[in-house]
Amino acid sequence: MKQNVLVIGSGGREHAIVDALKRSESVGRVYCAPGNAGINMQATPVEIAVTDIDNLARFATDASVALTVVGPEVPLANGIVDEFRKRGLRIFGPTKAAAQIESSKAFAKELMARHNIPTAASRTFEEFQPALDYVLAGPEQIVIKYDGLAAGKGVVVAQNHTEAEAALRNMLLDDEFGKGRVVVEEFLDGPEFSFMCLVNGAKVYPLAIARDHKRAYDNDRGPNTGGMGAYSPVPFVTDEIRQAALDTILRPVAQAMVDEGTPFSGVLYGGLILNNGMPKVIEFNARFGDPETEVVLPRMESDFYNVLEAVIDGRDCEIRWKPETRLGIVLAADGYPGTYAKGLRINGLDKVDDKVYHMGTRLDNDGNIVSAGGRVLMVTAGADNLTQARKQALKEIHKIADCSEGFFFRSDIGVKESAE
Ligand code: AMP
Ligand code: GLY
User: Fold this and answer.
1) Which of 399, 400, 389, 405 is nearest to 328 (CA)?
2) Strands across the sheet with 278-285, in order?
3) What 3-state class would DSSP assign to 114?
4) What's the gap in Å between 194 CA and the centre of ligand 1?
5) Out of 32, 51, 91, 325, which could bridge 43 as a Cys pair, Cβ 3.0 to 4.6 Å?
6) Which tens digits make up the pLDDT trace of 246-279?
7) Measured in angstroms, how far is the CA atom of residue 192 from the centroid of ligand 1?
8) Residue 115 CB contacts under 8 Å (≥ 6 apart), including other chains
9) Which ligand 2 atom minimizes the distance to the CA of 227?
10) How far is ligand 2, taken at its centre, from the CA of residue 34, in Å?
11) Which ligand 1 atom sits closest to the C-alpha of 120?
C-alpha cells in the first residue's frame, strides 16, 4: 500500500525532500505545509504554519499521514517531534532535548568537550566584561557566537579585537538577538564541508558529502547568508577524511547523545572544517542543510522513503548514490541578505533543462511565479565532474536571470576546486 507523507517547511530544502519522496515507489500523496509555488506543483499544499504544532499533528492524523519529515529547525527546537510521538504519529527528526545540539551552541560545545570530539577551543560567557577580558588576552582573530537560534546571523568571525568587542557589545549589552549567552571560539583555518548523517540513537547512516558557499558575493566576499550555492561530492574530502569524520566526530557524537540520555534521531548535520589535515566541528545542525540537500538528495539512487523507514526502525540499510557531481546556484533578490524587494516576477523557468528547487516563491493573483524571499530558487545541474556541472548550472541559471529583473547570483560556485 502506498503511504501518505507530510513535509514541513517552505524552502529549497523542503522542495528537494518533496521531490525525492515523489520518486519513491512506496509514497502515495505528498503534502507540504505550507509549501511554495514550486513545491505546490509536486505536492498538495497545506496551509498550516510550521510552528502550529497542534494543527500539524491534527492534519497528520486526519489525512492518514504515515510519516512526517521536518525541514526547518524552529519546529524541532519547539518540540514538534515530542508532540507527534506523544500522539502516536511517526515523524523523522530529533526531540526538543536532542535538537539542542543545534539550538544551543553551549550545549554542543560542552558535549564535545566531555567526549573529546575535535572542535575549536571555546569558553561560554553570560557577562560582557569577563568575555571581553578573555578576548583581549587572546589572538586578534577570534570567533564570537550567540548561544541560540539567530537565523545564521549570530556568528561573527572577528579579524581583530575591535571587531570582537563590537560583537560582544551587540550580543551581551544590546541584546541584539535577545538575552543570551555567548560562546567565544578559537579561529580555525581551512576549507569547510557539510557531512549530513541520518541517525537513530547510536546508529549512523552517512549521506554524500556536500559543500556550501555562505558568503553573498564571488570570491567569498560580502556578508554571510543562508548559502548561495553548493555541490556534491566534494573532491578535497577524500575517503580517508570522510572516514576520519565518521570515526572521530559523527559516530562518537551519536553515541555520546545516547549515553547522556538525549538520543538523537533524524538528520545530524556536521558543519566541518579541514584544519591541519584533520576534520573538526564548526557547528552541528539537527536537520537537513539548505542548500546542501538540493544537491545531495537528487543524487540518491536508493528509495528515499524506504531509507527513512529503515532508519526510524533501526534496520541496516545501504544508501546508493549516482556517480554524478551535482552543483546548484542560488538566485537571490538584489540586496539580500540585507533589505530586498519581494513580488519580483521570475521568467524563463520553463526553459531550464535540469532540476530547479524553489526557495522563496509564490503565485501572484494572475498566476505568475514571483519572489517571496531573499533566496528565491536554486538551479542545479548534474554532470560527470565539477567543471562540467558548474558550466551547465551557469548556463541554466542564465536562462532565468537574463530575462528576470532584480536578482543576482554567484558565478564562482565550485571554481576553486574545479581548477585544482
Ligand atoms: P556557524 O553558524 O557556526 O556555522 O558559523 C558560520 C560561519 O562562520 C561558518 O560557516 C564558518 O565559515 C565561520 N566560523 C564559525 N566558527 C568558526 C571557527 N571556529 N573558525 C573559523 N571560522 C568559523
Ligand atoms: N547550509 C547551512 C545550513 O543549512 O545551516
Assistant:
1) 389
2) 203-206, 192-200, 265-275, 278-285
3) helix
4) 12
5) 32
6) 999 999 999 999 999 999 999 999 999 999 999 9
7) 9
8) 252, 253, 256
9) 1
10) 20
11) 19
